[in-house]
Design goal:
mainly alpha
């Protein structure tokens, strides 16, 4: 419950406000940008006058100085909050910039994982010997001749089988898979044992 000011004090505050409000508004307008914020700041000064009316000096000059002291404090608080808002806005802008970059990277990585998964599934759908041949060439880095030796397969048979496997992958994937896509579709743990 708010305490009412004695009538005499109430009348004095009204006189102080009437005598100083325009000067206080101009004082604040010259110090804030945008200038329309000065009206809100003046409201804070006047509120302080009414809330602390008993502390307002009873001399005209002292009352004026007291009002401008309050205006100065309100202005200082406004600057402090404005600096805080700018710091927070800068931090938010930086966070959004980093988040956008991470989101773009995450989207690209997710698209890559989906593509890798499709390639991996297509390779796993090949017959056992063709699958192992493709995996040895693209995932393990062997040349076709070396993979053929590892699989105890004739080199020309390995080349034919490898060509057929790539054509099948092309049909399954809907386009010719690049070496990078086949290379990038990394084997899941335990795949080697099932591929032999």
């Amino acid at each position: 419950m708010r305490r009412r000011l004695p009538q005499e004090l109430h009348d004095w505050i009204e006189i102080v406000v009437e005598d100083n409000a325009d000067d206080l508004l101009r004082y604040l307008q010259r110090r804030v940008d945008p200038t329309h914020e000065a009206a809100d700041l003046l409201g804070s000064v006047l509120l302080a006058l009414w809330e602390h009316g008993a502390r307002v000096p009873t001399d005209d000059e002292d009352a004026r100085m007291w009002c401008f002291g309050v205006a100065r404090n309100v202005l200082r608080e406004h600057y402090r909050h404005a600096a805080k808002r700018l710091t927070l806005a800068d931090a938010l802008r930086e966070h959004l910039r980093v988040s956008a970059a991470q989101d773009n990277a995450a989207d690209s990585a997710a698209e890559g994982r989906i593509r890798d998964e499709a390639v991996r599934n297509a390779v796993l759908a090949l017959d056992k010997r063709s699958r192992e041949l493709v995996m040895l060439v693209h995932w393990d880095g062997f040349r076709i001749a070396e993979a053929a030796r590892l699989l105890s397969m004739n080199e020309s048979t390995a080349r034919t089988r490898y060509g057929r496997a790539l054509r099948r992958l092309e049909r399954v994937l809907g386009e010719r898979p690049s070496s990078a896509e086949v290379d990038g579709a990394r084997r899941e743990p335990g795949l080697r044992a099932g591929a032999r």
